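Components:
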Amino acid sequence: MIKVNNLKKKFGDLEVLKDINIQINEKEVVVVIGPSGSGKSTFLRCLNNLEEITSGDVYINDINLSGHKVNINEIRADVGMVFQQFNLFPHKTVLENITLAPIKVRKKTKQEAEEKAYKLLEKVGLVNKADAYPDSLSGGQKQRIAIARALAMDPKIMLFDEPTSALDPEMVGEVLSVMKDLAREGMTMVVVTHEMGFAREVGDRVVFMDEGYIIEEASPVTLFTSPKHERTTAFLSKVL
Amino acid sequence: MDFRIDIIIEYLPFLLKGLVLTIGLSIGGILIGSVLGFFIALGKMSKVKWLRLPFIWYINFFRGTPLLVQLFLIHFGVMPLFMSPASTIMSALTALALNAAAYVAEIFRAGIQSIDKGQEEAARSLGLSTSQSMAYVIFPQAFKRMIPPLGNEFITLLKDSSLAAIIAAPELMYWGRAASGQYFRVWEPYLTVAFTYLLLTLSITYLLNNVERRLSNT
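Structure:
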């Protein structure tokens, strides 16, 4: 579903991703962990071309993102993304936030889009907030709306960029539980997070990144209990 | 000091005609200036360096030289290439619009760039194109922030339109000068003109405050 070959990313002279190779299969939940500055968010943002790739290839469903005739908007429509800072549209109601892209990109009618939106709001437990503006919501509620907004496009892949890092501790649970439901339903997910509990419980595979490289990848049990690399051990000893 | 109200009464029809032209020049100037300014702002934000240059220099020129000089260049230099004799009203409108465009462009650019980068990223990640993101996500938010500076620009433009009197475009100030010249009086015509400008600018301020209040409630 996702294939990354020799991915490199430079910001000016700073090489953030040095040589990333990974393949992610359908319905797989891959959790990316690592110290800050390790390049994990940049890696995630390369998967939908929010960061332009310096060299290497990223394939989404066998389509090369840096190919010449690729319509990046079409690919992005199939790849949902959830941000650390939620990035809800503050000038639109919750319902409008969710229906904007389905109407403008998928060319759904307003009614179709709203029906779908209400179903998703039910799923994330926020039907009563349909007409509220984002400013009036708590962080946890905002992030659940952001997830619903991404799901409204019927994405085949969901990318999560530290979705709980900006939340008050008591709100982390409600967001993780929505993500767990999603994983259970068979969504292909790539999750950058510091929530080791989530990685262990939901992840099919955990990827440890450091200094622009994938140092180690394994099932959660293997990676958390018997990591092969020193750097993994050192990182885990700090966060576990 | 005697105050000859009869001069004002005699010139009232002309002052009113001038007032209409002043309002016309200002509204026309800000509208054309806004449309031009929007595209100049987009041009200046282009990712291609050489494409930005002409827009940067447009802004540099029109903000960095006096409006009066621009007015003369346009009226005595550019306009005669297209019409003969050059229409003073057309010249005034052109100069005001081109000048306003430079300031409006910077207002638009600042407004657009003040919107958090995450907004565009969220919109693009949902599959919206660059122009869709601009139209539905960035611009509506930026516009709210642009209203106060745009209002200021409109007020400046309205006052600057009085410079058109110097090329004899028959706007408010022109008729004030005419009355002053005919009777060798200063206070009656110029106080009347000043008071009229003040009335206009205060009305705009009042209107803009209302618009702002209404927008901040949504």
